[in-house]
Prior knowledge:
Elements: E1 2-5, E2 22-39, E3 50-69, H1 75-86, E4 90-99, E5 102-111, H2 122-131, E6 133-134, E7 137-138, H3 139-152, H4 158-172
Antiparallel strand pairs: 1-3, 2-3, 2-4, 4-5, 6-7
Helix pairs in contact: 2-4, 3-4
Amino acid sequence: MWVCGYGSLMWIGWEVSIGCGRRCKAVLLGYRRAFIKASIKNWGSAEHPCPTLNIVPSPSAQCEGIAFEFPDDKRALILSYLAQREGKGFSLRELAIEREGVRVQAVVPIYHGHNLILAETPEEIVRMIDHARGEHGSCVDYLREITEKLTRLGINDPVVTEMWRAFLRRDQLGHGGPSRS
């Protein structure tokens, strides 16, 4: 069984204690990252939600992430862990990935809950990032960490890169908000 992560699943080490046999870079076909899941606790609040990563269908897109292989007899344990970790509003979908030149099906958590952000432009997202702060820190911290962690993994994601650049441009123009770190 394969699981594919596109966000924090890639770097938190969850797979080690559950018997992961292999981890490798993989490409999720027909999807891209998007800052559309509102964090209203960890990185933001109900008044000022932080736009966090999710994935959305995009026929010509590819989302590079990390795939984890587990023995098939661990399937129930893996699905239970992922359902508990991801929480309400997430579905665990079987989607096509390519890893090491081979196409396989992998379980991918996708958020479909009521905390979806309907911002229209990157500028709107940047304004939200400027003002959001939660229990784990500011939304600026979240964006910086995601950018740095993807870079360390050798993943260049155009959506994340452009959002970071848009934030830096705004900051350089002196339009930063109250939550800058």
